[in-house]
Amino acid sequence: MKKNEKDWPELNFECQRCLHCCGGEPGYVFLSRNDIERASQHLGVSEEEFISIYCRKIDYGTYYMVSLKEKDNYDCVFLRPFGCAIYEARPHQCSTYPFWRGLGDDRQAWEEEKRNCPGLGKGRKYSRKEAQELIDSNDLNPAYIIFKHNL
Ligand code: SF4
Ligand code: SF4
Fold it and tell me: Is the pLDDT of residue 1 over 70?
């Protein structure tokens, strides 16, 4: 039995729709190929148009990763007063929060994250197995990498 299964068998989380995690400070929403495909279909644009209009390339030396653009106030390009403009097709990074590696499987980090997210510790109960499946699902949606030598 892994440590978390015994000591931290279940978690509560329910989004309170405060929208804090969608803007207000600099950050990255990294996109996988699936994310780009899903969001571009949702918006009715080509993947190339989607990247050019809504994304920025983050330089990691020999390659780029693709993140959503931010407005001047650091809000996500898709943040609206009512919430996410592409909610049904939002990136995996957004839909799996706060079940991220190093957060949903790290109790100290989870407790500290409560300062940023009022949904942690509230609402729906997730078993350790459910939480771990969400955390692991991020591995199936790796960030899209564009190698510079391919450009
Ligand atoms: S910070 Fe937490 S409660 Fe607020 S919108 Fe994000 S996930 Fe929901
Ligand atoms: S894509 Fe939507 S859910 Fe994700 S950060 Fe932007 S506004 Fe928030």
Answer: no
- pTM value is 0.92
What are the structure tokens assigned to 77, written together?
């390009």
Number of domains the chain contains? 1
pLDDT of residue 77: 98
Cα 77 to middle of ligand 2, angstroms: 8
Q: How many CB atoms lie under 10 A from the CB of residue 132?
A: 18
Q: Would you give the DSSP letter of residue 47?
A: H
Ligand 2 cavity residues, CB under 6 Å: 22, 29, 68, 76, 78-79, 84, 86, 90-91, 94
Task: Give the tokens for residue 143.
Answer: 């960030």
CA distance 11 to 9: 7
Q: Which domain holds residue 76?
A: 3-18+25-150
Render pLDDT for 104-134 as a digit per residue (tens, 0 to 9).
Answer: 999 999 999 999 999 999 999 999 999 999 9
Atom from ligand 1 closest to the CA of residue 17: 5
